[in-house]
Amino acid sequence: MSQNASNPQLPLESGEPRALEHLLHHAKIWRAGATSPTKGIPTDFPVLDSLLPNNGWPRNSLTEILTKQEGIGALRLVLPAIARLTQTQWVVWVCPPYVPYAPALQAAGVVLERMLIVEPDEDQQADTEYMLWVFEQALRFADCGVAMAWIGAAQHVRLRRLQLACEQGQTWGVVFRPEAFAIQASPAALRLSLVADADTAAEVRILKSQGGANARSCQLDL
Fold first, then answer.
1. Helix, coil or strand: residue 120
2. CB-based contacts of 70: which residues, under 8 Å, 6+ apart?
3. Phi, psi angle pair for 189, to nearest 5°
């Protein structure tokens, strides 16, 4: 007997609904508006923690911090979390624009013995593809708690590879980018814009967060 063409009924194999239910509850499946059950990495800024979906930086994910200018506290924003992670894991700096100042990092609680700094050769300093490749390898590095990179233009597919590397390596990835790239779509789980507000204060604007945010901005003393 043929089925009614206007209302086709497709038979389900035995166990198929149960398999679908299991798939939808898989840790890698994210539904719009949902948050990860994993608590975030504390930022040590209570007001910012209260705004983020998992009360901290998203684990095993890519975070973008966009600024209009350097030197307004972008690194200080993540420094407490970096210090926390270096108690047990590595932190990898990929082609930082300046040599990290060891005394200041140590004073902030960073374990210097767990720091790795990747510096390019002179002929590789302007090679964005090389930088992105190194960053991706760092995100997959065993026992890496956080890897950071300073990048400009990057294709969406390259950023998607970085997000996947974070998930596979179970690493928190942080990219610092110029604010001009805020208008471009990004697969990063969290995107923040940092705007100088005063000599020591800055406004943190949440441009995108997985699961939404309780508010869109806050002011921090950096």
1. coil
2. 97
3. -70, -30
Biggest distance spanned by C-alpha atoms of the chain: 81
Taking only the tens of pLDDT, the chain with its 222 residues reads 444 444 444 344 445 555 545 544 444 444 444 445 578 999 999 999 999 988 999 999 999 999 987 777 899 999 999 999 999 999 999 989 888 999 999 999 999 999 999 987 666 556 788 889 999 999 998 899 999 999 888 889 999 999 999 999 999 999 999 999 999 889 999 999 998 876 668 899 999 987 665 558 888 887
Q: Which of 114, 49, 98, 105 is nearest to 79 (CA)?
A: 105
Confirm if 129 and 27 have CB atoms less than 8 A apart. no
Q: What tokens were used for 109?
A: 């609680």
- Enumerate domains of the chain plus CATH numbers: 37-221 (3.40.50.300)
